[in-house]
Amino acid sequence: MKLNGKEVLRPTLVLFLICLLTTLALAGTNLLTKNRIAQQELLAEEESRQVVLPQAEVFEETDGYVIGKTDSGETAGYIFVTEAKGYGGTIKVMTGISSNGTVTGVKILSHSETVGLGANVEKDSFLSQYNQALPQSGFSVIKGATAGDGQISAVTGATISSNAVTKAVNEALTQYSAISGGE
């Protein structure tokens, strides 16, 4: 069987043109939606700040963290965004800590955990466990028991994800200690 150059060139050229047009369409869509996506991410971040530090009215970004202030200008607390490796990938966590050293809220910003298992770390029943005074040695995850001070009950079947969130929150505690002088 002898191959004809025209039989090979025509499908190759058609495939090339299809790939080129698809690439141009995707690039154009990305260009058109880039600003809108950035606005939505900024809005979501602002809403998350209000969730993790509800007593703050104004937020000032500084180098590596956010200071939440009341209307009168007093510091209400601090917000830290940290990451840790979970079962399905990186878990990005926002933690609010009041100026008197209490965790006021924890919110998962992004994750790739398994739906129905690790993704359950997003639930308020898990995240609200962190809302307590800062423990001396950080938070620790326990399995199958009622958690005490500084202890977090792991999500059933998702210990790796629970540990990742706890590691990210503990990183926020470390950053808080660094800026508050270890109080």
UniProtKB/TrEMBL annotation:
<keyword id="KW-0249">Electron transport</keyword>
<keyword id="KW-0285">Flavoprotein</keyword>
<keyword id="KW-0288">FMN</keyword>
<feature type="modified residue" description="FMN phosphoryl threonine">
    <location>
        <position position="159"/>
    </location>
</feature>
<dbReference type="GO" id="GO:0005886">
    <property type="term" value="C:plasma membrane"/>
</dbReference>
<comment type="subunit">
    <text>The complex is composed of six subunits: RnfA, RnfB, RnfC, RnfD, RnfE and RnfG.</text>
</comment>
<comment type="similarity">
    <text>Belongs to the RnfG family.</text>
</comment>
<keyword id="KW-1278">Translocase</keyword>
<protein>
    <recommendedName>
        <fullName>Ion-translocating oxidoreductase complex subunit G</fullName>
        <ecNumber>7.-.-.-</ecNumber>
    </recommendedName>
</protein>
<keyword id="KW-0813">Transport</keyword>
<keyword id="KW-0472">Membrane</keyword>
<comment type="function">
    <text>Part of a membrane-bound complex that couples electron transfer with translocation of ions across the membrane.</text>
</comment>
<feature type="domain" description="FMN-binding">
    <location>
        <begin position="86"/>
        <end position="176"/>
    </location>
</feature>
<keyword id="KW-1133">Transmembrane helix</keyword>
<dbReference type="InterPro" id="IPR010209">
    <property type="entry name" value="Ion_transpt_RnfG/RsxG"/>
</dbReference>
<dbReference type="Pfam" id="PF04205">
    <property type="entry name" value="FMN_bind"/>
</dbReference>
<dbReference type="GO" id="GO:0010181">
    <property type="term" value="F:FMN binding"/>
</dbReference>
<keyword id="KW-0597">Phosphoprotein</keyword>
<keyword id="KW-0812">Transmembrane</keyword>
<keyword id="KW-1003">Cell membrane</keyword>
<dbReference type="InterPro" id="IPR007329">
    <property type="entry name" value="FMN-bd"/>
</dbReference>
<dbReference type="GO" id="GO:0009055">
    <property type="term" value="F:electron transfer activity"/>
</dbReference>
<dbReference type="GO" id="GO:0022900">
    <property type="term" value="P:electron transport chain"/>
</dbReference>
